[in-house]
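Recall from the previous lesson that a structure prediction takes nothing but the amino acid sequence as input. Here we apply that procedure to Endospore germination permease from Tumebacillus lacus. The sequence below is the only information supplied.
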Amino acid sequence: MEKVRISLTQAQMLIITSITASGHLLFIPAILNHTGRDSWLCLLLVVPPALLIAYTVSSLARMYPGQTVIEYLPLIVGKLPGKLFAVLFLFYFFHHALLSVRGFGEFFTIAITPDTPILVYFAAILSLAVYAVRNNLEVLARTNQLFLPIMILVGLSASILTHKDKDFHNFQPILEFGFEPVLQGTLTLAGLYGSFLLMSMVFPYVSRDAKSFKKSSLITMIILIVMFAGPLTGPVAVYGPERSIGISFPTFQLLRDIRVGELQRLDVLGILLWSLGSFGKISLYLYSISLGLSQLFGLKDYRSLVIPVAALIAINSLMISENFLEIYRFLRDTYPYYSNFMGLLLPLVVLLIAKWRERSKRKDGGDGDVQETAQTQTG
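The prediction returns the following tokens.
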């Protein structure tokens, strides 16, 4: 086990950065495509599954303190099934890393510098991530603790500065196309929150007692839901439901179109926002994958795997799709079911098995005590 400790606040900030970074950049267009003007309803409907995800991950961490999901899976479902589940979860992390790196590169090549090869951005962000991860989790957590307030400040500034351009009549009529599009958008958002599973690789290194994980996880998830209110409603309020659906990066477009007197073209803030966020997210995934693989194969140190894993991420990020449109279609059509299965249903099954095993042990222990007492009295 890595001999580092981070605070509970630092752990919360890591997962907030991880989910909001790619969420605001990649997932908002997919959700808006489903829901249009009803996007705000997703924020209400996603609360139960999102809180269930947080409860599941934190409960497992509380039951198996000091162990990552890779370490406690064999204890819950058995050695061989545990290894299989571990491979599935590591693949889930790896796939999210691919989407994050590719999304980062596509953002720059589509919206900023179309003539620059996308591999340049892959190399830049992964080189920074490798440096951070090889220095251990504490360095990554402290760096993110410095960056996240800046990202939140940029987001709040964008929301305030665009308020004068918002027309809330754009959200009427409600449920014009029925409930199904809203359900699809909710599944997409819940799938994104499924990546909260990443906390199962961070909790063992939190200095606070495991009993505090459940409350903090639920609070963190509520914060995450609130942080998607502006990005989900802002584009519709400013551009209308029809135009907002056709924008590749609607939240970035909001920053680009801000006009406040002489203050114009604040897209540089968007570039700063997603660069810092993507760095935090990709670094955390690189750390989790490297650490998970080292635990799966019984290696003493994860650092030897960081560069090979980063290279695999770079190569596969390029191969994952031919263009951004394919990624967008995957996020819109397939991701909601895939991520809810991997990030919610599978961990929930693991938790139910763990609860059942715990109750069985207590029952067996209780029966044993009763039999021992009866034998003593008989004697």
